[in-house]
Amino acid sequence: MAYSGDPILVEELLYRPVHSLIDQSLHAKLGGFTTNGDGVGIGWYGDRAEPAVYKSTHPAWNDRDLREIASQIRTPLLFAHIRASSGTPVQRSNCHPFRHGRWLWMHNGSLAEFGTLKRDLVMAVDPALYPQIEGSTDTETLFFLALTFGLEDDPPTAVARAVALVEEVGHRHGVAYPVHMTVATTDGESIWVFRYSSEGETSSLYYSTDVAQVRQLHPELEALQQLGPDTRFVVSEPLRELPGAWHEVPDGSWGLVHRDKGEIHPFQPLVRV
Amino acid sequence: MAYSGDPILVEELLYRPVHSLIDQSLHAKLGGFTTNGDGVGIGWYGDRAEPAVYKSTHPAWNDRDLREIASQIRTPLLFAHIRASSGTPVQRSNCHPFRHGRWLWMHNGSLAEFGTLKRDLVMAVDPALYPQIEGSTDTETLFFLALTFGLEDDPPTAVARAVALVEEVGHRHGVAYPVHMTVATTDGESIWVFRYSSEGETSSLYYSTDVAQVRQLHPELEALQQLGPDTRFVVSEPLRELPGAWHEVPDGSWGLVHRDKGEIHPFQPLVRV
Amino acid sequence: MAYSGDPILVEELLYRPVHSLIDQSLHAKLGGFTTNGDGVGIGWYGDRAEPAVYKSTHPAWNDRDLREIASQIRTPLLFAHIRASSGTPVQRSNCHPFRHGRWLWMHNGSLAEFGTLKRDLVMAVDPALYPQIEGSTDTETLFFLALTFGLEDDPPTAVARAVALVEEVGHRHGVAYPVHMTVATTDGESIWVFRYSSEGETSSLYYSTDVAQVRQLHPELEALQQLGPDTRFVVSEPLRELPGAWHEVPDGSWGLVHRDKGEIHPFQPLVRV
Amino acid sequence: MAYSGDPILVEELLYRPVHSLIDQSLHAKLGGFTTNGDGVGIGWYGDRAEPAVYKSTHPAWNDRDLREIASQIRTPLLFAHIRASSGTPVQRSNCHPFRHGRWLWMHNGSLAEFGTLKRDLVMAVDPALYPQIEGSTDTETLFFLALTFGLEDDPPTAVARAVALVEEVGHRHGVAYPVHMTVATTDGESIWVFRYSSEGETSSLYYSTDVAQVRQLHPELEALQQLGPDTRFVVSEPLRELPGAWHEVPDGSWGLVHRDKGEIHPFQPLVRV
């Protein structure tokens, strides 16, 4: 889940909505896994340009410290993620969101047969960036490929090039559909989201547009009553069912969320010539 | 899950059966909770009279060390438990099985409104035993009440008296149905099981009788092929569906498993006069 | 360590001073233990009356999330504690500071032969408060005894009565010197500290008075340059050696820190008649 | 610490000797770090060719499960390690000993400026082995380089070549003294140890020869009384001071421990021509 808008208490976002992210860690309805109990992480922006992250290997639903921190942190931009490991170890350095400078990155999905592709992918990461890779996930590798291809200057192009590389390496190793990706990334001001998979059947991704509609959704969120029209949510699963309030990010597209701006564009891998 | 019989590799019991305990931690079908990810624990007997225990607060499905240990430990008697907390903190001292001397104790269920009853219950524990209570669960308290009432000499009577006390204290505090209990306890030689609740709708509990039938159930468990007729399982949920091979422990009864002996008796709380 | 004054970034307090609390977790010079690696905890006040707490069982020096949170939290009052267990389990519910409503409580020291005294002490806790005891430490029990005796209304008297009770119970059980205590407690506005032991040889406790002197101590703490004269530290060990800037809280006394007020008074147990 | 000999209860090795490995985690006298509280790990051989490993990120001295397991595991060969991180995250996948097939590997020391050298070193690992690297330590990288150079066939040569490569890469990046190494590795039958550093001032490494002498050292270890002449210890720090019983592995040498065989040879990096 990603939130952008007026500063809001993290607790309001994680614990209040009917089908909150904490609930989703127990009973995700739409994901490939029914339990996302392999870790939780949040990233948020405060006084500094660089965000802070809190990550834990314990399931979100029983993490006391997450609840404590959420009750005290007010932020205009939050990334929250619950993890179901696709094979790599459950450890803090493998929890999302990943951070680099001002940027956060999180991912729902996987790179197929990552073990086979990993060496070639990691070698394509800028050698100056390589030492900063801390964990062993496909997500972090994809992040660093995007950084290598200029994420900080032009996110859509960078991600398109990174995905093209993964598909190229994948095909070279006989993997038919290497990429399954819903990604959210941010520099603290704007949020870019991507929904694409090689096979064309990607995990769900939704965004909200009109906060007035979200307020109708969540009368119990008193805090939202004071929020302005800039409030935006991007979620893997809707926080509550309400026809019309949640718009699907179409498969094979990318989106930009910034203040009053909300754009969707087609996305396709950018193959090197 | 409890196992008694010829020494067997713990890995065979935890990871091999189709609906293994590890799977149950993800998708328990019959329990009140669909995910039991608040900890895991095993107790086993080796060279000594006192058993060893391994407990972890991480969900069973991602605990690497549990897998490692299971691959190396061979034991004639194993207790294994996956936890779904009914409110008390997730910490190692609140994981089952609990141990006292040669005895192990684990529990599926809860004592209603335990916070309200706790002080009176804990005060009824033998003052000499009281300092040994390490955690904060209702299960551990019930264990120490049973120990107070002579578990080490006459388990059925001790448990009957403990349950009677909980119901008495519960009623005194206006709790209609204080006890919901399926308990397994052992001294390393025999296993006693109890299935009882104040309301009469207790969580499931099954036992196996004829190992020949269990072998039919689990052709993939090669280790079982060498086992003799003493093999017994007691489980919350059947390891695999096979009509006739799993017998339900009737609600309101206790059972004894010892070598070739398997008995079921009615159980009711033993009120003090 | 306790801090009171203008809002300050927690990171400045925990990680900057030469002999910071994080360093002390590795190399405490004056304490009975040379390594305090059995857990860390902080409590801080923000928008609400009730403080938030972050606690971890990992040693302070390698806890990444503590660093992250510290970089983002600004607070006018901070309690920070590193733990060396005197026997009870290392678990989050046994880390300091303990919280009750608006109050925080932390402790350096121990109650002798606590296992022997525990039952009698716990029984003296107000039954209405008893269910809120989460862990198994002597510190938490002492806190709840103080709450029972009116900590929220008159802290010095409440602590004096609690200590008297512990000594009485201790003597009854043949323990000569039951109490070894340096305690800090706060309601978010004032901080009370206590330094007392039955034997008269209590762990160290220091306070700072004049912030101008502390600024001379810590030129590297730029943040302190902006702080007003209300800044107060209470520490187990001086953050840096500078004769005259750290005043010892005399053994057998209690102190009050509130804005510009700083008082020391004699402390002795208040025996019931 | 490494042990080889008749099967012994792990508890006897870890918790009994006066300056046991558990004590060393608190107060290492000879190491560069005074506290080794960033994790603990043991590897041991049982029924299978492949060893099992138990690893934890908690300090050795407060790890309850380690104590439990140690009380039940009997093994003829044990590797035990306590970690002081040289910068990489504290996580289970970064704890020693590392395992590959039948082999275990542990290391005291570091590769200087590892972040700078890492990419080149990792690229020299056999691509077929590369996906098996789980963590981010210099130790694991060195292990996989040794495996790449034929550790399983000729350990001394493999390690010599791996060290030569690290020095070459190091010098290329302007690192004067890239290697500081005391390594122990085993296939379950023999133990090879290496003590070498680029600068010539390596951490300590000792071995025992005559078990009769070790028995004189440790009268309190009753279990040792039954052990035969094959008992061998290799330790970073002597388990107890006793002149003559502990022999230093000279700096710049490698040793082989196998049953009644104990050899020391000079070690130097094997540069590719």
UniProtKB/TrEMBL annotation, chains A, B, C, D:
Keywords: Glutamine amidotransferase
Keyword Nucleotide-binding: no
Record has Cytoplasm as a keyword: no
Cited InterPro entries: EgtC-like, Gamma-glu_amide_hydrolase, GATase_2_dom, Ntn_hydrolases_N
Domain of life: Bacteria
Domain Glutamine amidotransferase type-2 stretches: 1-273
Protein name (record): Glutamine amidotransferase
